[in-house]
Amino acid sequence: MKIKSILLDIDNVLYDSVKLTEATRRNAIISMIEAGLPIKDVEQAYQMLLEIVKGYGSNYPYHFDRLLEKFGVKWNPHIIAAGVVAYDDTKHAYLKPYPEVIPTLLKLKAMGYKLGIISDGRAVKQWDKLIRLGVQHFFDVVVTSEEVGVEKPDSRIFEAALEALNCRSEECLMIGDRLTKDIAGANKAGVISVRVLKGRYANEKPVNPSMKPKFEIKNLTEIFDVLAKLS
Amino acid sequence: MKIKSILLDIDNVLYDSVKLTEATRRNAIISMIEAGLPIKDVEQAYQMLLEIVKGYGSNYPYHFDRLLEKFGVKWNPHIIAAGVVAYDDTKHAYLKPYPEVIPTLLKLKAMGYKLGIISDGRAVKQWDKLIRLGVQHFFDVVVTSEEVGVEKPDSRIFEAALEALNCRSEECLMIGDRLTKDIAGANKAGVISVRVLKGRYANEKPVNPSMKPKFEIKNLTEIFDVLAKLS
Questions:
Q1: DSSP strand E in B77-121: where?
Q2: pLDDT digits (tens, 9 = 90+) for A110-157
Q3: Chain A contact for B210, CB < 8 A?
Q4: Which of A37, A83, B158, B195 is at 20 to 30 A from B218, Cα to Cα?
Q5: Looking at the domain A5-15+98-230, which fold is it?
Q6: A104 contacts: CB under 8 Å, gap ≥ 6
Q7: Is A78 touching B (CB cutoff 8 A)?
Q8: What is the pLDDT of residues B80-101, one digit of tens each?
Q9: What is the pLDDT of residue B45?
Q10: What is the CATH number of domain B18-94?
Q11: Contact B78/A142, CB-based, under 8 Å?
């Protein structure tokens, strides 16, 4: 079966989401302390922020307000704005593609493959990432969970991409870092699953066969080896 | 009476808010057109965006969503994100102080004056501006309408600043561009009003004596002439 299309996840596939997330939050904490947050231990404040993000979700807009509350500090717009500015500036600095991404995508396009994105999250936020990464024009389709109404591993999000690409599942690869989402979802949808060993889940083991990837790669450039094996 | 404190507005006093607002919105429109918004006339789309901002208020987060609706275009996260990224990048590029601002503030500090900000709007947003302008450490007090609960020209927002500075109204100057807000408010609160002739209201005439500024300056550096006259 000839492969026609390649679907990719964004976080930890196109850019280092782990490094960005850590740097944005740590720099926000440091700036808040410089603006007057009466905390000595950056690590303690960082861990507390992680708990708040976990509790309220990553799209909640008042993480820093809740952090001040947790430390019993009166609401302070200077401290909060210092966190927001540092977060924002750090995000823009770190939202750069892995060095191999643009050359690999260019080569895949030149080889005739259609490319797509399947991403969980708010559509505008995911497009914002693609634009800042400078890769928004590479993809024939971008499917987000917000638009489909279900998240990975639900098959419907993969089916939406396949339909838009006019591609059968077995003619399609899905490259992602998450066994429970990208790999389990691709396997269920009949798409050939390729795990990229990057990010915080790189050492995770599949707990059942449905999560087992068909291929594992360390780096996006190895996708050419996978394609060679499949042809 | 010796002047002890100087209060300032942010927009059009510390930076060119007119230029920023125009550039952010125009660049957002242009990027949205490049991302597929099927509009040929940038000016028409710009005017429509202005109407939407007027209707929904400047803090409303879905101006671009409403713009697509107005043009009968289906909600499109690529187009909206393109607008958001361009708006954001342009804001950061244009949020720079007028060239005379930092030298003037430094000189006023060196002369022993206390400095304060009185600004209508959301506190975190105003602090975000002060931080990006690099002037957040110059001010002994920052008072926002969100925190006081009333906007200029209400006297209470001026009284909050005077109290924080431990300063009597006649010992204090207020520098702003808006007759109806900064000047009328300062006059009512007994603060010496100084109009800076910048921004879109520079040609406005006072319609009654309560809006008449005690002094008018073209540029922040002329504040030293005002201080010399008052001493």
A1: 114-119
A2: 999 999 999 999 999 999 999 999 999 999 999 999 999 999 999 999
A3: no
A4: B158
A5: Rossmann fold (3.40.50)
A6: A220, A221, A223
A7: yes
A8: 999 999 999 999 999 999 999 9
A9: 95
A10: 1.10.150.520
A11: yes
